[in-house]
């Protein structure tokens, strides 16, 4: 949902639309995957990162995006944190971007890479009913197209405020 929300904000305020990078599981969702892929989205597969060919293709693509000053949207937190507990971020793609920058700085024409942290806080979480069950040990249900459609059908219910904060850029 965060990716869709950020996409809407960039569209509404006529900001440059980022190349969305997410996990393969998110892109596997029928309609969502098609929409994100058609708007320059791409995904990475953690298991394939061990393959030299896969890593070379991904590195080449990321290097090309950085060379052309493209925005790349990466979600560091792979799990939702609805109780305030901070989860260890997924550092895989972040590490790849930093390594590429440090190793290919001459190829990037010494351009700077900046990371813009974005926080998204919700007054009420759309799947808040299942959260107490998850705290009691129930396994969370994976996102599905049906779950997303139910969310959009219930969007007219008051969900409170959503606060999105674009923090100060961090330069490499």
Describe this structure in words.
With 172 residues, this protein is α/β, with parallel strands linked by helices. The chain has one domain. It contains 7 helices and 7 strands. It has helices at 2-12, 24-27, 30-38, 52-67, 92-103, 131-135, 145-153; strands spanning 19-23, 42-44, 72-74, 114-115, 118-122, 162-166, 170-171. A 3-stranded parallel beta sheet has the order 2-1-3. The protein has a two-stranded antiparallel ribbon with strand order 4-7. Helix 4 (52-67) crosses helix 5. The longest helix is centred in the middle third of the chain and has 16 residues, at 52-67. The chain is globular, with a radius of gyration of 17 Å. The two termini are 29 Å apart.
Largest sheet: 3 strands, parallel
Strand order of the largest sheet: 2-1-3
Q: What pattern of helices and strands is seen along the backbone?
A: HEHHEHEHEEHHEE
Helix content bin: 25-40%
**Gyration radius, to the nearest Å?**
17 Å
Termini gap:
29 Å
**What is the count of helical runs?**
7
Provide a short characterization of the protein structure.
With 172 residues, the chain is an alpha/beta fold. It has helices at 2-12, 24-27, 30-38, 52-67, 92-103, 131-135, 145-153; strands at residues 19-23, 42-44, 72-74, 114-115, 118-122, 162-166, 170-171.
Q: Which key terms come to mind for this protein?
A:
single chain, 172 residues, alpha/beta, 3-stranded parallel β-sheet, two-stranded antiparallel ribbon, 7 helices, 7 strands, globular
SSE blueprint:
Blueprint: H1 2-12, E1 19-23, H2 24-27, H3 30-38, E2 42-44, H4 52-67, E3 72-74, H5 92-103, E4 114-115, E5 118-122, H6 131-135, H7 145-153, E6 162-166, E7 170-171
Parallel strand pairs: 1-2, 1-3
Antiparallel strand pairs: 4-7, 5-6
